[in-house]
Predict the structure.
Amino acid sequence: SRSFFLADNLHLEFEDYALKLADNLHFFKANRLSLDTKKQEIIIDGFSIKPPQNVQTKAVLETYGKNSVLDIYVPKFEAKGVDIVSAYFDGILHVKQINVPRPQISIKSFKPTETDSAVQDVMTRQEIADLLTNYFDEVRVDSLSLFDGTMSLESSSTKGTQSFSDKDIDLGIKNFQVQKGAEISNMGFLFSEEVDLQLNRYIFNIADGKYTMDAERINFNSANEEIIARNVKLSPKLDLNEKLKISATIPTMLFRGVDLERFLFENQLGLQKLELDDALVNILINDDAVPSEAPRRRRQAGPRSLPKTIDVIQIDTITAKKAQLFVSIKEGGVQKEL
């Protein structure tokens, strides 16, 4: 029989629920957990997955032979269209829709010196997959919507630390799937067929910190390997004293063929094509300028780590549509357009 306690349907509620997860590293807690087999839904208030408190993270990872630690908090987690019967009896968890409003997500990874970034990425993904497949042979989620989120990703070794953090993140995932025993390296980004990531007000430095690029909104789609940046402003630093200065206003920038993981974790932007629409570009040739040393990079205070710096930019092709170019020269304190 595939019934619970001889009943066709079951509704359970738990308060102050806590569970040590099978990896012996994380604890799952909930202020309130509601499970309803008839409605096929799971609602969790105060959802959290955290490591033990008041301990050294690296020491705990070494103790359990792990490389990554999760710290996740969601005020209200909703899973709709959950086949609870199949999850319990067959070990197959299939969810139609998960809603995750205002989450706070932190993932920290520690690697030995000899482990490169590509190997470390596979190890981290394997640990996350193992955490899920400790309870189910297969996990499938048709759609996951995360909005107004805060995310922090950090990878550390004796050679240094690479990190990405931002807030006001919206994330959409389609066809998430993890299977026990499956090859991790063959799975898509975030174990999904398609990832749509949106960042509000993204700022980063280029050209050794001499220029700042400010985008009102950035959207990344893994299926298309595209980044679309809207209302972008390129500005030289105020104290930049060089013969050539460039500033630009670009309503739409399209980056094609983007490796998102290199962009987020290695500060490298490699792409096949850059398209600029309706760009307004100003070039100033300043004959009065006296070249100075490149400005030092300074990290902003506060929890938001932006603006970040793009260390390497590689572009195969650049195209511009309906662009306007203005060139001016400054000589003897007088500036005039050419």
